[in-house]
Design goal:
With 187 residues, this protein is an alpha/beta fold. The protein has four helices and eleven strands, in the order H-H-E-H-E-E-E-E-E-E-E-H-E-E-E.
Length: 187
């Protein structure tokens, strides 16, 4: 299936999810995440949920990372350059939602990309090869292309894998894992 078709399909599927199902599936993803062998790292990049897009609620992931005493990194997006700046999440971090209703840090201690060891990646759909479909702006592909080759990329999805994203390119950054409520995919 083409990215454009997948975006439409999965946006519609997400909109059908009730609040209770969103919470239940998000919690199942966070619990399944504990089975991964990634807990020896220190810097974890986490996307913050866009509620009206009915994304995976990353609050549960955030709680796990905090309990494991990990350094949590969150980003601010620049919609002119499609680049992200990364900040350490602290007790003093203040947030503001941008024009796309993405919660972002106002300021803070900037974290260089080469420090980030694990990235939790938002997505609409993914395939059996680890390709993903996002919203189409390329923020994460740009960001992930600047990460170290050893950086672990983990997608979070309410839905299972598609067979193939037929128009995936070499510029699309592949995932290492994708976690759904029912399964961990390894690529």
């Amino acid at each position: 299936m083409l990215k454009k078709e997948l975006r439409k399909k999965y946006k519609e599927l997400r909109q059908q999810l009730t609040e209770d199902i969103l919470v239940e599936k998000s919690l199942a993803i966070a619990n399944r995440m504990l089975q991964l062998d990634v807990w020896d790292k220190m810097y974890y990049h986490l996307f913050l949920t866009i509620e009206e897009q009915k994304e995976v609620d990353t609050e549960f992931v955030l709680q796990i990372l905090a309990r494991k005493d990990k350094e949590i990194v969150v980003s601010k997006s620049d919609f002119e350059t499609f680049e992200m700046t990364h900040f350490l999440l602290t007790d003093n971090t203040k947030f503001r939602t941008n024009s796309y209703n993405i919660p972002e840090p106002v300021n803070g201690l900037e974290v260089p990309v080469d420090k980030i060891e694990v990235v939790f990646v938002p997505l609409l759909a993914f395939d059996l090869k680890g390709n993903r479909v996002g919203y189409g702006k390329g923020f994460y592909d740009k960001f992930l292309s600047k990460c170290n080759p050893e950086t672990i990329k983990i997608g979070l999805s309410f839905f299972e894998a598609e067979e193939e994203i037929s128009d995936a390119t070499n510029n699309d950054m592949r995932l290492d894992f994708c976690i759904t409520p029912n399964k961990i995919y390894t690529f």
